[in-house]
Structure to design on (278 residues):
């Protein structure tokens, strides 16, 4: 019998229970498509992380998650999981902040980042808790096999960050030098190198934007070819890392969880397949 694919949800703080609930709902819906078996676990230790084929970093308070992860000796294993082993990882809200290579408007003393996405995020971009809101989002990646346009996804934004700049692939070190030279309070994730030297860097993909609150492209993007006015960037993907500034786990809609589980399954099967010699 095929071993189950193990998906962990980082359970140090935040909406980890809600993510697990929707993962189970999505997995049930996927059973009609394939014979994949799933195991969903809460991750609080290095040993639990090592069991995982994929990981979700839920919404919550990014500084708190970072501190607890450091005290639990999880920060370095998390960085290796994401940036060295390149296992599928999804971060929501606080998870987006932690998975960014650069974050500004951090609290006094800053915070530790995991990294993995060549982006700079602006924490609490949309304001305080009282300024939280919901909005319909157009998510083309949720289109079905018949290429039908998906129904809008109701995004829940709670003290949400936004991707304010897309960095050139693999530019983390150069970005760190720039930020240190400028003397600002931007935090940079420690560098990690993947073992495959022939593996070319890949750019960040913009997966969703929020219209109506946008600024000019030149203020947000670096070395990216997009429309002049694309709205605020609220979902991105780069290689094995996916992140959203909103909270899909706080809705009854499991479509994004189902889509992501398909990405996980593809990645796991690709890793298990023998590499073709060239």
């Amino acid at each position: 019998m095929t071993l189950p694919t193990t998906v962990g949800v980082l359970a140090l703080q935040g909406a980890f229970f809600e993510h697990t609930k929707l993962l189970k709902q999505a997995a049930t819906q996927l059973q009609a498509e394939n014979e994949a078996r799933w195991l969903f676990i809460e991750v609080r230790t290095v040993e639990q992380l090592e069991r995982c084929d994929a990981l979700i970093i839920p919404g919550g308070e990014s500084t708190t998650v970072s501190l607890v992860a450091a005290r639990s000796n999880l920060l370095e294993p998390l960085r290796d999981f994401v940036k060295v082993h390149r296992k599928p990882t999804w971060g929501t809200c606080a998870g987006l902040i932690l998975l960014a290579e650069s974050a500004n408007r951090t609290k006094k003393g800053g915070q530790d980042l995991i990294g993995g996405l060549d982006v700079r995020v602006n924490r609490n971009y949309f304001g305080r808790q009282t300024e939280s809101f919901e909005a319909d989002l157009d998510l083309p990646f949720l289109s079905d096999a018949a290429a039908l346009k998906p129904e809008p996804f109701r995004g829940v934004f709670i003290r949400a960050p936004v991707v304010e700049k897309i960095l050139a692939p693999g530019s983390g070190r150069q970005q760190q030098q720039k930020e240190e030279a400028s003397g600002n309070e931007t935090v940079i994730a420690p560098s990690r190198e993947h073992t495959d030297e022939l593996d070319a860097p890949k750019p960040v993909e913009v997966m969703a934007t929020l219209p109506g609150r946008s600024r000019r492209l030149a203020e947000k993007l670096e070395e990216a070819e997009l429309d002049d006015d694309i709205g605020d960037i609220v979902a991105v993907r780069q290689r094995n890392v996916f992140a959203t500034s909103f909270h899909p786990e706080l809705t009854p809609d499991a479509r994004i969880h189902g889509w992501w589980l398909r990405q996980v399954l593809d990645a796991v099967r690709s890793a298990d397949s023998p590499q073709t010699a060239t």
User: Anything to note?
Assistant: The longest helix spans residues 255-272. The CA atoms of residues 119 and 166 lie 5 Å apart. The longest strand covers residues 232-238.
